Records
---
Amino acid sequence: MRREWEIGKESRMLRTICALFLASLIAFASAVTAQEVRPPEGAQEPRAETGGAQTLEDILARERGQLVEGSFRSDNIGGNIDATQFAPALGPLGVASDSDIWRRLRFDKAQVTLSSDGAAAAPASSVTIQDAGMWWLDFRRGPLATYGGYLLLGTLALLALFLLIRGRIRIDGEKTGRKITRFKAVERFGHWLTAGSFILLGITGLISLFGRMGLIPLIGKEAFAPLAQAGKWVHNNVAWAFMLGLVMIFAMWVIENIPNRHDLKWLAVGGGLFSKNVHPPARKFNAGQKIIFWAVIVLGVSISISGLALLFPFQLPMFAKTFVILNDTGLPQWLGFGALPETLTPHQEMQLAQLWHAIVAFVFMAIILAHIYLGSIGMEGAFDAMGSGEVEEQWAREHHGLWIEELKSEGGTSRATPAE
Amino acid sequence: MKTMLLAFACIAVIAVGAWYGLHQAGFSIQEVTTRSSVRLN
């Protein structure tokens, strides 16, 4: 025991010495660095030659895309002299210069009094300048449009490649000629209400994002203007049909989309999508359809909330509140983003809502493209489920074997002729 | 297919209804946040 204690003691001492050694190294390096960067005696303050204003190097650094620490401007707002001793000789600006006033407005440090009554004033009206709009604009027409476009084109290319390699997924067994009711009229109504409105929202959303760079060069500004106006009207008002459809499909199908053990078997063989004569067991909805369902619900709710925030400007700010919650979890810091801003201007809230709305929309559209493909040209017999609501019994047997067994045990609903 | 067409027709009806209803309710940001003293029409 004593020997172990001594080893432990030595180990602790060794660790302490190592720690001290490392600490002294760091301290020495810091001292050297501090000496190296310490300005020589008599050196001028940064930006002394411009009286504290930005220099040519600042401007060039920004043009190179480098971050220039901006407190020398945002803090330079005047007002640190008691104006009362000079008033009224200095006039309405007091001891502040024009530049001070504009910096106060730009960096949201001005006391802005509105001419309209305060209770009815827009939350954003006291913010007269906010330069986060340039970041938003650059991101919107840069990475958002670029990577969003790549995502959609890439998805289409993958689906085309899948069709070339796999071909249309046929009904492997012999068709029976008997039909089974897969979806009732109300279910199909809910589906098409959501689907039709989603397609309209997708197309008009893409016109809104890509119109300036993609359509104006093709059709000109005169033709684009009414198209953009109509697109905006459709986007704003069709959104309500989408939200109603979302509520309908959630209420109708949520129970049957709760994951179960059969989903693992389905996923293990890729649903049989990649090979012939492979038909994993599935109830009314297989694992692939459940993934689509939950993606539609989660993304649909998210895009609806951000859409409402855009439809009712400045009335539904939520990003600052969300960032507070996220910062409390420590996730953004852990991912290396640092703490997210917990105070946002009303305009920044709108800009983030727009970006989030578009990002979710791109992911949503990519998923739905795959859904549309499999529900139409990608799989024989699939469209009937939402077209007439009646599917070939053999199709149902291959893709929803457990569901058809349940139907048969309940009395069966096969019929010899289609219902439509 | 009739159900699909009915749903599409409902989308149009809901859209027009939403537009009419919201404007009757005076929802637009212009109506909500401005006064005649600050907007020239």
---
Amino acid sequence: MLGAAIIVFRETLEAALLISIVAAATRSLSHRTRWLVFGLLAGILGSLVVAGFMDKIAQLADGIGQDIFNALVLGAAVLMLGWHNVWMARHGAQMASEARSVAKSVQEGRRELSAIALVIALAVLREGSETALFLFGLASGSDLAMPAILSGGALGMGAGAGLGYAMYRGLLRIPLRHLFSVTSVLILLLAAGMAGQSARFLIQADLLSGMVTPLWDTSHILPVNSPVGSFLHVLIGYDARPSATQVIFYAAVAVSILVGMRWARPRRAPTPA
Amino acid sequence: MHIAKFVAAALMLGPALAFSADMDVNLVIRDHKFEPAELKVPAGKKLKLIIDNQDATAEEFESHELNREKVIPGKTKGSVLIGPLKPGKYPFYGEFHEATAKGVIVAE
């Protein structure tokens, strides 16, 4: 049961941290919670469907269907996170100064929130489909009893969600005028890390060359399966043995988003309300 | 924006961009164990690891040393490109059945 809990925890954590960060980043938009929950439910439903078809997906394109699927899901999430950061660069200052009266930009806020809901759905879809496949396997193939599997899964999911919630509460303690800068940096690194991961899927599918593999090896200093290493892996895309291509993807996305944010920033700082 | 183009290009130009492996290496999953548990491969070559999961349940092939992870649904085959490897030992395991599914690739 504990084994199941640990695996589910690991899979849940990535999505939970992402949700906590985007939830904090959109805290002053109206109807935000509704959109977040919608994204979460869509992701859970989608992951059950994907898990059901995983054997079909896996057999596509000569056994690399899943890698392509994962790379695409991650790529789409990176795009949405990049869009979010650019949007925030334009509206963040305004949101921080008139936190209670963003109603006038509801229309714009809606587009932003739909991007956020999509990000959540994609993150949950990716992690959730693997979790579901694992739990299906336990339920059908082993001598573990159903209650043990369910309680293990619930324990792992609860722990992952709990950590995400703790992160959210922590972020909310940051004063509003700094909060959006902090979440923008976190989201930038999260997106860059996802881009690096998507490169890895394309490399292991032999669709891209890794070029130099690995570019560095820090596994003896900070292994990626240590608690700190795996936390950094989830949060900023830390990898102990990345290939050069992964690092290039990481840097390219980080720089693109930064340039987009710089470009979107209002020319003159709005006068404080 | 960048990445979408990159991914799209990679998918479209897949065959052109793919640097196909030097050789295939086969690995079987049966009863939540890898066969063979020790796999000798030549160092310095790009290898296509073909993992044939004969169990009814899914397994996640994972190796921190190889920097690879891939879910292989039950009764399916998946391929993972690895290498070129420096001589050495590269342990791998099945994350869904960590107690029994263990193996090592020895590059020499």
